[in-house]
From TrEMBL:
Provenance organism: Apteryx mantelli (North Island brown kiwi)
Protein name in UniProt: Suppressor of tumorigenicity 7 protein isoform X2
Topology of this chain in the membrane: Multi-pass membrane protein
Family, similarity comment: Belongs to the ST7 family.
UniProt entry keywords in alphabetical sequence: Membrane, Transmembrane, Transmembrane helix
Length: 473
């Protein structure tokens, strides 16, 4: 009976030794299995393959009338080569088609959009106009040669006349073949671009109601061209008119769960909610009595906006200097924050107490977001590649804003490191007891070497009798 008990204990001991020996292997395979099972809910594949998509800035400025003026005054280039190269690709996509070689003026403009030198592009546009009334040539001159918005508007009106003629002709032939469909698609893009820029000229020249009407008409005429995000231009113009009911109506249409969000959508929604309570909001009073329903809605809207793009508040609160917005933006990035704040800061200032409410509440968002920071409550994980793309879009003299980090307390980090180190030592000691014994002796001897050295020096200095009495004490 005793032998049987002894045998059982020996088997149990060998099983425990075996489990400790191969525990790390078992743990590794368990983790792999969990990662495989949870790959769908955690969206691991999506996170690994996520690429930062760059969007055309809906409110981009005019190169000749605005960006170049900044260069003349400061000597700095507000646009990066990467940003301008993206614009060149956009122009080739929207303003050219495969049949351009059949028309001399369009063939010249097809080469002009690929030119890197601004003067070469402008010269090519003038050359195309000598041959024919070319809408895209007028567009290029309005964008790059005109030095004022008034000049740009005149050129866009000439472009509109030429573009409408091309659009009507291609509309009649669009069903006669693939090349005619491509040409009609190009003429549609040109016409929409011209009308949009004319509306933006009217907005910049103070004719805001006229601009709103032009934008509404354009959205009704071409409802499927949502890729141009004309509703963001409309929202900004309506805010200038303080037509908040109309702003809410536009948000109700575009702030939909199935549509891609933007800083303009999220922060405009937050501004409208804040407007209802911001004039009487007091953090001291709110801490005493608690938040009312309207105040809670406003705070939640601000948290939603900040979670989408955390860089905007520093520009709205003027904690960071604004620069001219780039021609392309990265959603949820610093470039989008600059583009939004550049045009909407005045609208936040106009609403009494809105910036104060933002200042009191926006930082609390990061305490609410679960750790790690890549998670979120309302939106997909914050893209890791955002900072890199923003550095290419924004000029070198601008300090790129990065995602605010939530830091763990030192005690938690220290405890986690100590536990991990202890577990590693235990595993190594179990696996290699003799080798770890040698390392332990060497470590202790090294650790106490300075103390032994001091003791030897003390013994050599003090008299032996005195040292003997001290050691007895």
């Amino acid at each position: 009976m005793a032998e049987a008990g002894t045998g059982f204990l020996e088997q149990l001991k060998s099983c425990i030794v075996w489990s400790w020996t191969y525990l790390w292997t078992l743990w590794f395979f368990i983790m792999l299995f969990l990662v495989y099972i949870l790959r769908v809910p955690l969206k691991i594949n999506d996170n690994l393959t996520t690429e930062c998509k760059v969007w055309r800035n809906p409110l981009n400025l005019f190169r000749g009338a605005e960006y170049n003026r900044y260069t003349w005054v400061t000597g700095r280039e507000p646009l990066t080569y990467y940003d301008m190269n993206l614009s060149a690709q956009d122009h080739q996509t929207f303003f050219t088609c495969d049949t351009d070689h059949m028309r001399p003026a369009d063939a010249i403009m097809q080469k002009a959009w690929r030119e890197r030198n601004p003067q070469a592009r402008i010269s090519a546009a003038h050359e195309a106009l000598e041959l024919n009334e070319c809408a895209t040539a007028y567009i290029l001159l309005a964008e790059e040669e005109a030095t004022t918005i008034v000049e740009a508007e005149k050129l866009f009106k000439q472009a509109l006349k030429a573009g409408e003629g091309c659009y009507r002709r291609s509309q009649q032939l669009q069903h006669h073949g693939a090349q005619y469909e491509a040409q009609h698609r190009r003429d549609t893009n040109v016409l929409v671009y011209i009308k949009r820029r004319l509306a933006m000229c009217a907005r910049k020249l103070g004719r805001t109601r006229e601009a709103v009407k032009m934008m509404r008409d354009l959205m009704k005429e071409f409802p499927l061209l949502s890729m141009f995000n004309i509703h963001e231009n409309l929202l900004e113009a309506l805010l200038e008119l303080q037509a908040y009911a109309d702003v809410q109506a536009v948000l109700a249409k575009y702030d939909d769960i199935s549509l891609p969000k933007s800083a303009t959508i999220c922060y405009t929604a937050a501004l409208l909610k804040a407007r209802a309570v911001s004039d009487k909001f007091s953090p001291e009073a709110a801490s005493r009595r608690g938040l009312s329903t309207a105040e809670m809605n406003a705070v939640e809207a601000i948290h939603r906006a900040v979670e989408f793009n955390p860089h905007v508040p520093k520009y709205l609160l003027e904690m960071k200097s604004l620069i001219l917005p780039p021609e392309h933006i990265l959603k949820r990035g610093d470039s989008e924050a600059i583009a939004y704040a550049f045009f909407h800061l005045q609208h936040w200032k106009r609403v009494e107490g809105a910036l104060n409410l933002l200042h009191c509440t926006w930082e609390g968002t990061f305490r609410m977001i679960p750790y790690p920071l890549e998670k979120g409550h309302l939106f997909y994980p914050y893209p890791i590649c955002t900072e890199t793309a923003d550095r290419e879009l924004l000029p070198s003299f601008h300090e790129v804003s990065v995602y605010p980090k939530k830091e763990l307390p030192f005690f938690i980090l220290f405890t986690a490191g100590l536990c991990s180190f202890t577990a590693m030592l235990a595993l190594l000691t179990h696996q290699f007891p003799e080798l770890m014994g040698v390392f332990a002796k060497a470590f202790l001897s090294t650790l106490f070497a300075p103390l032994n050295f001091v003791m030897e020096k003390v013994e050599s200095i003090l008299p032996s009798s005195l040292w003997h009495q001290l050691t007895r004490i």
